[in-house]
Amino acid sequence: MRRTISIVTPCFNEETGILECYQTIKSIFETELQDYNREHIFCDNASTDRTVEILKDIAANDRSVKIIVNARNFGILRNTYNGVLSTTGDAIILFMPADLQDPPELIPIFVRHWESGYEIVYGIRARREEPFLRMLARKLYYRLISRISYVDYPVDVGDFQLVDHKVLDAMKLFEDAQPFMRMMPFECGFRSIGVPYTWRARKHGFSQNRMSQLIDQGLSGIISFSTAPLRIALFFGFIIALLSFLYAFAVLILRLSGFDTGQHGIPTIVIAIFFFAGVQLLFLGLVGEYIVAIFNQVRHRPIVVERERVNFEKTRGEPTSIDN
Fold first, then answer.
1. Which of helix, strand or coil describes residue 149?
2. Helix or strand or coil: residue 31?
3. CA distance 35 to 18
């Protein structure tokens, strides 16, 4: 029996490159993966250009292509994870970008590792074709989250991963309201192997991920998979309290010994007030991020609300959708 490989491609205003993405994946299955069925799910995040129109033309002639159109833009993390939850393949490529920055020619290599017994095959972004400062920021972030996370997460690993369907079944058990998908397979465990590659520059258009969205995604990963920020805040507060106590004790000893400690200047007091106020606000914001994550989790909202699906069989338990 032929096994199925599912590929998930999130998209938002990708009209210039979406056809090339489809054709490239299809060509790989027709040449190197002929023994497998293909399921290519495009998750559209309420595009305002011709992306959905192009996808519908493709899907009308290729039943292997399925489309999910969201009612609004829910962000790349939730959009991609909703598509992953809708897959039916024996193995799933969690993220295949429409701009092909993660090279699709690695998919056959991923599949061979999967066939050899690995349940998780992840791409390692060893090199990046992007400006130096942005590349440096990403590398620092990956190393930070790998170090502070309670999950054994390799550095320079993004969402470009192949997972066995039993890994996906395990991922579904977590019911995470803010899914940071690149780390979820590693939280599940299973056998894994990495494949290094070069992350390419975009061929078409420009990234729809704004800086604010990148920061939000980065914070989501840290908050979801690490308690280190709270522990740092606790440690920092303890150190400041201890130093304050030692300072007060030293002043008391000097006074009792008859030494004149003199009067502190106003600038010192002002600096101290602003410093401690800033530290307090920083830690209040940090705690607030964790409270917001808890708040979002307990509300039990759907990951996304869908406007329509194309080429899906209607089954029970489908995500909420609004038909045109």
1. coil
2. helix
3. 25
What single string gives the DSSP state of each residue in 260-301?
A: ---PPPHHHHHHHHHHHHHHHHHHHHHHHHHHHHHHHHHTT-
> pLDDT tens digit string along 133-188?
888 888 888 788 888 888 888 888 989 999 999 999 999 988 777 788 888 999 88
Q: What is the dihedral of CA 306, 311, 316, 317, to 10 degrees?
A: -40
Crossing angle for the helix pair 18-31 and 107-115, nearest 10 degrees?
40
Q: How many CB atoms lie within 10 A of CB 233?
A: 16
Record the tokens describing residue 172, joined without a space: 């579904």
> Contact 220/77 with Cβ under 8 angstroms?
yes
Sheet containing 3-11, strands listed edge to edge, beginning at the edge strand earlier in sequence: 192-199, 120-128, 157-164, 91-93, 3-11, 36-44, 65-70, 306-310
pTM exceeding the 0.85 threshold for the entire prediction: no
Give pLDDT, residue 266. Answer: 59
- Give the whole-angstrom CA distance, residue 201 versus residue 134: 12
**CA gyration radius, the chain:** 25
**Cα angle: 265, vertex 268, 272; to 5 degrees:** 145
Concatenating the DSSP letter of every residue in 105-117 gives GGHHHHHHHHHTT
H/E segment holding residue 10: strand 3-11
H or E element at residue 168: helix 165-172
Sign of CA dihedral 117, 120, 125, 126: negative
pLDDT tens for 27-45 read 999 999 999 999 999 999 9
3-state secondary structure of 148: helix
Contacts of 273 (CB under 8 A, 6+ apart): none
